[in-house]
Design a protein that fits this description.
Elements lengths: L2 H18 L4 H20 L10 H13 L4 H20 L26 H12 L4 H11 L6 H5 L6 E2 L4 E5 L5 E5 L2 H15 L20 H14 L7 H14 L4 H8 L4 H7 L4 H11 L7 H10 L5
Antiparallel strand pairs: 1-2, 2-3
Helix pairs in contact: 1-2, 2-4, 5-6, 6-8, 11-12
């Protein structure tokens, strides 16, 4: 039996099998199309038998998919269809081994939190000023958004690491690495208000004292609850402390900060992390291009000339 007849028969049997397992119609259509595409590739490569389908040939197929522009998500789905088929063929005795088991697909694209608009950030601060603990909640926002701190960095911050006059924080980041983070006048006022309330113990954001009356920091979970409650009060959904950190970095970039500065400010080990982490709004990219590139727009004289050429009125 020719390869194509073998493969088509195996694919048809497999699709019937998953149909009986209550696979959705959408899955059946996608898998059928993906397997037909692979069959066409095998025919083009003049592969003679099912046994001739090996790992190098599968890798070459994936490289071809990359080459013609398929996304990582699409390639992952196509590979999933092949894995399901080969697993079925091995269990059915059509092939001796499942050659897809050792094949790694493309890594999924890293998802990134959205950056809030500046109007949404303002709404959060208004909600903080009207909350049950406005001084604490405002200070939380000032350090998460104003300084781009990680939630764990905020929770563990000590007053001894706050230079109120020079406006510096000494932050203990990932891997117990310290970094200096500047803060602005708004955060300075928020921290002074917090200290004036009698919060000048060991931790900037102190939690409840335990049985031994020892002060402990505010927990990460509590900080999450503070932020989500403020977001709910502002009519915003899906806002976390990390959303505020991401928004801080994005707004810095939009206002002209360099990637190198943002890398140091956020405490990233290397520039690649910062480049992955940041997303830039399309509108800001366009505005920056039009403002700075010499060939981005026409001068006033040329624009007037084009308008005249396009004017059919007498």
């Amino acid at each position: 039996m020719r390869l194509m007849e073998q493969f088509d028969a195996a694919a048809a049997s497999f699709l019937e099998h998953i149909k009986n397992k209550s696979a959705s119609g959408h899955t059946l259509v996608n898998y059928a199309a993906d397997l037909k595409q692979f069959a066409d590739y095998l025919e083009k490569q003049e592969v003679g038998r099912l046994e001739d389908i090996d790992v190098p040939r599968l890798r070459a197929y994936l490289r071809e998919l990359y080459g013609v522009g398929y996304s990582k998500a699409s390639i992952s789905r196509k590979l999933s269809a092949l894995r399901s088929l080969f697993s079925y063929m091995r269990r059915s005795g059509l092939v001796e081994r499942d050659v897809t088991r050792s094949l790694r697909g493309p890594s999924a694209p890293r998802s990134l939190p959205r950056a809030l608009s500046r109007e949404a950030v303002d709404a959060l601060f208004r909600a903080a000023s009207d909350s049950d603990d406005p001084v604490r909640d405002t200070a939380v926002l000032e350090l998460l958004y104003g300084c781009g701190l990680r939630v764990s960095e905020l929770a563990g911050l000590r007053w001894q690491d706050v230079d109120m006059e020079e406006r510096w924080l000494i932050v203990l980041g990932k891997g117990d690495k310290e970094r200096r983070v500047p803060f602005g006048s708004y955060a300075q006022k928020a921290l002074r208000d917090l200290a004036a309330e009698g919060a000048a113990g060991e931790f900037v954001f102190a939690g409840k004292k335990g049985k031994k009356k020892k002060e402990s920091p505010l927990t990460v979970r509590t900080v999450h609850r503070i932020v989500t409650a403020l977001a709910a009060g502002s009519g915003l959904a899906g806002v976390t402390p990390h959303t505020l950190r991401h928004s801080c970095a994005t707004h810095l970039l939009e206002r002209g900060a360099s990637l190198k500065f943002v890398q140091e400010f956020l405490g990233h080990e290397n520039m690649a992390t910062t480049q992955i982490y940041l997303t830039v709004s399309a509108s800001w990219l366009k505005e920056s291009y039009e403002a700075h590139h010499p060939r981005a727009g026409l001068d006033a004289e040329m624009e007037a000339e084009i308008e005249t050429e396009g004017d059919d009125s007498v």
